[in-house]
């Protein structure tokens, strides 16, 4: 029997509310370090911790009450000007909030949390008495070794220790494990030394009047992949419920209900008209009424679809709120002065995509702090302000969302990237010489690539940025890099607002329709004989002074071409542009992807149904282009010209 038998609902309510409060406290603590005399911030932080302590007391969680009480007293002394905030004191406070989050993880598993470590309690008591924190033992030097084949870099454990998360594959009742050692300035308390990684609890910043509904994965909607932000629940039964719930503004549910009622009325009208027509009433007025009813139904279904999609949308600020503390703690450990500036928190994104977007953004924020910006001494020597600025922003552009992570650091040198890639055996000299600067920047996404000569607990294994690209591609997104040496680097992620409905271009090859993601399509052009030119024995077409290779869709999927291509679709992938040769095209459509049960052919994302009921395969273009057939799909000039001449 669990320690909280019969209190599951109360416990879950406490975890939901307290997790929101703790996330808010963490962010305000980072702000407080910039404005230590801000009484308003201190009062907000004090109230947040006081509320958490009160809930813990109601549940008789003595270990949590004791820790919160000590930390609350510390905040009280700060707001009464009895203590002065400094970086060492902030390290102790953040260590305490990390352990509070660890205790939430134990409660989420219906277990009584263990008391905070004696080290942390001693640190808090010393701070309360005005004594300096006990200096931590020096961290071991970075380990120099060859790149690891591990699928999870060491810094992931560090991140989970800092923000209270856990690896996605955590067991139902994980055993606390020590965090990896990290370089820590002397006379400071390493957060990882007192905060053990543990599964987090549900976090949310939903409106004040939300409705909680269970979200069941509809056929055709991609199930949410496990992620570092997946939240455990009180029991195994509640675990499933917790992972499939979403908090929704009641106004949005009211809109869905109203539209459902109107659709019901229209259905009744259509039923009546059907009966009239079956009884032989086919006059012009009846047919006009039928046409109007169908048109009305079309509008209502479209509005209902949009309203239902909005119920899945959540502000991206729920994700962004995790990163200020991550950036702050990493900067402290690396001896850097970094401020993370966040904008666009209100931008909304599909809930399932938020979960899968966490790991890529953690990688990019960590890279900006670790690789991107310089130390204070390096910035001063370069004539820059001592404080580095890392910007994290989100904006909606049409039916896509743009997320940017930019730093004002040293930038990336394409020649250095090419040299490192050659040294690691990822490319040869000939390939390096053929790359321009834009292509060279894309080298950072290659598995095993790293510019670090030494491996530490934070970076250097070369398994980070390839994970970023892989996860973004799984979300039907793109990631681009812009970098100026000496000025900084900007990563731009473009994502569809939702994965439930995918805009596509339906094309035909060998009389078979295929759907191509519209996000990759630039335009459609006819392919004429006089346009084709030969470059290195391959067919190319010049479009507005840009030389583009021609790839056959039939060749990509391994079919024999039955006729010469008539049209070309200008495609834009993450790395390059090309022309996809097709027989014809049907047009644009918004489809719901149906997964293919028990099979996943190479290059096929799923299937959908066309208006006439036929099956249309949805292509995974990135997978097709990476397959072994991609080389064969490049049309040889002689074959293309011969085919077009015959017809």
TrEMBL record:
InterPro entries: Bact_Chemotaxis_CheA, CheA-like_dim, CheA-like_homodim_sf, CheW-like_dom_sf, CheW-lke_dom, HATPase_C_sf, HATPase_dom, His_kinase_dom. The keyword Transmembrane helix does not apply. Residues 501-630 form the CheW-like domain. It is an enzyme of class 2 (transferase). Its EC number is 2.7.13.3. One of its GO terms (molecular function) is protein histidine kinase activity. The modification Phosphohistidine is found at residue 50. Residues 223-236 have a biased composition (Low complexity). Residues 215-246 are annotated as: Disordered. It catalyses: ATP + protein L-histidine = ADP + protein N-phospho-L-histidine. Residues 258-499 form the Histidine kinase domain. Keywords: Kinase, Phosphoprotein, Transferase, Two-component regulatory system. The keyword Nucleotide-binding does not apply. Residues 3-107 form the HPt domain. Residues 237-246 have a biased composition (Polar residues). It comes from the Bacteria. This is histidine kinase. It comes from Chitinimonas lacunae.
């Amino acid at each position: 029997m669990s320690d909280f038998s019969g209190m599951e609902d109360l416990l879950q309510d406490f975890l939901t509310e307290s997790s929101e409060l703790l996330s808010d406290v963490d962010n305000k603590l980072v702000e407080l370090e910039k404005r230590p005399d801000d009484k308003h911030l201190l009062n907000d932080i004090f109230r947040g911790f006081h509320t958490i302590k009160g809930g813990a007391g109601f549940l008789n969680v003595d270990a949590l009450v004791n820790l919160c009480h000590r930390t609350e007293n510390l905040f009280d002394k700060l707001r009464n000007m009895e203590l002065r905030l400094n970086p060492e004191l902030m390290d102790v406070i953040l260590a305490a909030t990390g352990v509070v989050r660890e205790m939430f993880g134990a409660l989420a598993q219906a277990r009584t949390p263990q008391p905070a470590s004696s080290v942390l309690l001693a640190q808090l008591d010393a701070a309360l008495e005005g004594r300096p924190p006990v200096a931590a033992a020096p961290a071991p030097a970075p380990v120099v070794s060859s790149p690891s084949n591990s699928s999870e870099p060491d810094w992931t454990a560090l991140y989970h220790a800092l923000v209270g998360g856990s690896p996605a594959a955590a067991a139902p009742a994980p055993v606390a494990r020590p965090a990896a050692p990290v370089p820590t300035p002397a006379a400071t308390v390493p957060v990882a030394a007192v905060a053990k990684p543990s599964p987090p609890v549900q976090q949310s910043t939903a409106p004040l009047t939300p409705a909680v509904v269970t979200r069941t994965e509809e056929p055709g909607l991609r199930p949410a992949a496990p992620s570092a932000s997946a939240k455990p629940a009180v029991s195994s039964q509640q675990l499933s419920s917790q992972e499939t719930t979403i908090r929704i503004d009641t106004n949005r549910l009211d809109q869905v209900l109203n539209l459902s009622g109107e659709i019901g009325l229209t259905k009744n009208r259509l039923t009546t008209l059907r009966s009239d027509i079956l009884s032989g009433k086919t006059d012009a007025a009846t047919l006009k009424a039928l046409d109007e009813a169908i048109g009305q139904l079309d509008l209502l279904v479209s509005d209902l679809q949009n309203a239902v999609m909005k119920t899945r949308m959540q502000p991206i600020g729920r994700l962004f709120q995790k990163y200020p503390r991550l950036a702050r703690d990493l900067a402290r450990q690396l001896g850097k002065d970094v401020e993370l500036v966040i904008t666009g928190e209100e931008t909304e994104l599909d809930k399932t995509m938020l979960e899968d977007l966490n790991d890529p953004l953690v990688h990019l924020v960590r890279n900006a702090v670790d690789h991107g910006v310089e130390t204070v001494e390096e910035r001063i020597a370069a004539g820059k302000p001592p404080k580095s600025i890392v910007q994290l922003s989100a904006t909606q552009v049409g039916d896509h969302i743009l997320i940017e992570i930019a730093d004002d650091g040293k930038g990336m040198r394409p020649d250095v990237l090419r040299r490192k890639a050659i040294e690691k055996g990822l490319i040869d000299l000939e390939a390096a010489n053929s790359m321009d600067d834009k292509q060279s920047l894309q080298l950072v996404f290659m598995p095993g690539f790293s510019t670090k000569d030494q491996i530490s607990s934070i970076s250097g294994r070369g398994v980070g940025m390839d994970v970023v690209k892989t996860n973004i591609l799984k979300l039907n997104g793109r990631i681009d890099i812009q970098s100026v040496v000496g000025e900084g680097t900007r990563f731009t992620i473009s994502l569809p607002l939702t994965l439930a409905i995918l805009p596509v271009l339906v094309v035909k090859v060998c009389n078979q329709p295929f759907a191509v993601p519209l996000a990759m399509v630039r335009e459609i052009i006819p392919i004429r004989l006089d346009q084709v030119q030969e470059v290195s024995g391959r067919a190319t077409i010049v479009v507005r002074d840009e030389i583009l290779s021609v790839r056959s869709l039939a060749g990509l999927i391994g079919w024999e071409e039955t006729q010469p291509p008539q049209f070309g679709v200008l495609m834009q992938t993450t790395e390059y542009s090309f022309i996809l040769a097709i027989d014809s095209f049907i047009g644009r459509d918004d489809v719901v992807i149906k997964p293919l049960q028990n099979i996943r052919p190479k290059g096929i994302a799923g299937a959908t149904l066309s208006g006439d009921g036929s099956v249309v395969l949805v292509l995974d273009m990135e997978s097709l282009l990476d397959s072994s057939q991609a080389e064969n799909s490049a049309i040889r000039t002689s074959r293309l010209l011969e085919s077009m001449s015959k017809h």
